[in-house]
Amino acid sequence: MIIRVTDQAGQQHELEGLDGWRVMEVIRDWGLNIKAECGGACSCATCHVWVDEGWFDKLHPPSDDEEDLLYSTLDKKPTSRLSCQILLNDDLDGLKVTLAPSAAKDSEAA
Amino acid sequence: MAEPEINTDVVIIGAGPVGLFAVFELGLLDLKCHVFDILDRPGGQCAELYPEKPIYDIPGFPVITGQGLVDNLMQQIAPFGPQFHFNRMITGLTKNADGSFRLTTDGDEVFNAKVVVVAAGGGSFQPKRPPVDGIEAYEGTSVFYSVRRMDDFREQDVVIVGGGDSALDWTLNLQPITRSLTLVHRRDAFKAAPASVNRMKELVMEGKINFLLGQVAKLEGDNGQVNHVHLTTDAGDLSVPATRLLPFFGLTMKLGPVADWGLELNDNLIVTDTEKFESSVPGIFAIGDINHYPGKLKLILSGFHEAALMAQAAKAIASPGERVVFQYTTSSTKLQKKLGVL
Predict the structure, then answer these.
(1) Please, what is the Cα angle at B23 between B103 and B76, to 5 degrees?
(2) Would the CB atoms of A37 and B252 count as touching at under 8 Å?
(3) Which of A12, B5, B34, B35 places its Cα 20 to 30 Å from the Cα of A63?
(4) Chosen from B45, B49, B184 to mutate, greatest number of chain A CBs within 10 A
(5) What is the ipTM of this complex?
(6) pTM for the full model?
(7) Residue pLDDT, tens place only, B59-114
(8) B205: number of Cβ within 10 Å
(9) How do strand B101-105 and strand B90-95 relate by DSSP bridges?
(10) Domain range holding A17?
(11) What is the pLDDT confidence band of residue B324, given thresholds at 50, 70 and 90?
(12) Is residue A107 part of a domain?
């Protein structure tokens, strides 16, 4: 399946992912500019993405922990999600997200 | 009076799993270690980010939690009596005339070591800055991310933000000495230990502290001294008079002073060879997630391997000319005596 990721420089990438993979893992695996500091443990906020409006409602809602972390970022939008909390399945084939500046490898998260 | 300088064989920067195992490998070769970490306890990322989560790729352990691994390592290295320095960051590193290294800490201590091992993982854990415009201007004067001196909060109007153990612990610890204390959190559910949450709620009922549901939107103050904390809440905007703000927004990893020591870096990682895991500066080694070499994998087991090879090279520097015979722990009475099992 395919996900479409826009990086912080505005460049669009079409990435191949597999069922059950976390969106963060796909983005990281393809070498895009994602820090993903805690490796998917829902303990940082550096895999932060803005989900395309057409896709946002198709995702299962965030946990309280994820919400707390989203609110700790400087660039939160209504469609913000942590990409390590989105697991790919067939319904998400074609998912479109944009990497937030706070997810950049050199971002000053603090 | 300044404290005396401490001389040792090895300074290890980072008490995560790889820094801990380095104590073992160096200990087998009779090298004494002082281990530094900015956290208040050993374990690094394992203890801080995933203590309860299962790890499946530690050799010999089909499954083990992050904290379980740290506990095992602490037991494994106990015979070598490492000296730990927690809540400490190594800030300065220079070379002495005799080739040893002079390290200074943020507690103004000085250590001289023949060998330095950087096992800093993803960098030192530092407090996350909350998303509040202009907060930097207040930091160190009236906004703090940790409590170094309780007296800084005596008779003050204190606002604490957060829902985890740090926020709740300091709410309970500071309440008796503050003029007023307000705890602010986004929701009415807490990650902190239930006993702490219960005690906090009792204090609210007794009228000794305030609890407000909301988020910090803005700070108002003068010359670094805050006088009002503006909150957004479901019931509208609130302005809370405050002279101290303690935001607990979790931790993030930062490379820190290591970046300034003249080591060759690649994308903020320390470049090493793969025979000794030595950096571009002889005598300074880098093991674990912090290093970089062709084929590097950020696995704990890789860090363990790197520690073993590093120790051989460290021994040659720390004890020049001493003949080292390669021995196995299963068959060497000498090693077993060091481990205290014989």
Answers:
(1) 150
(2) yes
(3) A12
(4) B49
(5) 0.83
(6) 0.89
(7) 999 999 999 999 999 999 999 999 999 999 999 999 999 999 999 999 999 999 99
(8) 9
(9) antiparallel
(10) 2-101
(11) confident
(12) no
CATH number at residue A87: 3.10.20.30
CA–CA gap between residue B147 and residue B21 (Å, rounded)? 31
Query: Could you tell me if residue A106 is inside a domain?
Result: no
The chain B residues in contact with chain A (CB within 8 A) are 45, 48-50, 53, 122, 126-131, 163, 186-187, 189, 191, 215, 249-250, 252-254, 267-268
- Answer yes or no: do A43 and B49 touch at CB < 8 A: yes
Residue A15 lies in a domain: yes
Q: Which residue has the tokens 């800055």?
A: B129
Overall number of domains in chain A = 1
* Delimiting residues of CATH 3.50.50.60 domain(s) in chain B: 6-125+252-339, 129-249
Q: B129-249, what's its fold?
A: FAD/NAD(P)-binding domain (3.50.50)
Architecture of the structural domain at B6-125+252-339: 3-Layer(bba) Sandwich (3.50)
Q: Give the residue carrying structure tokens 């930091």.
A: B139
Three-class SS of residue A9? Answer: coil
Chain B nearest CA to A41, separation (Å): 7
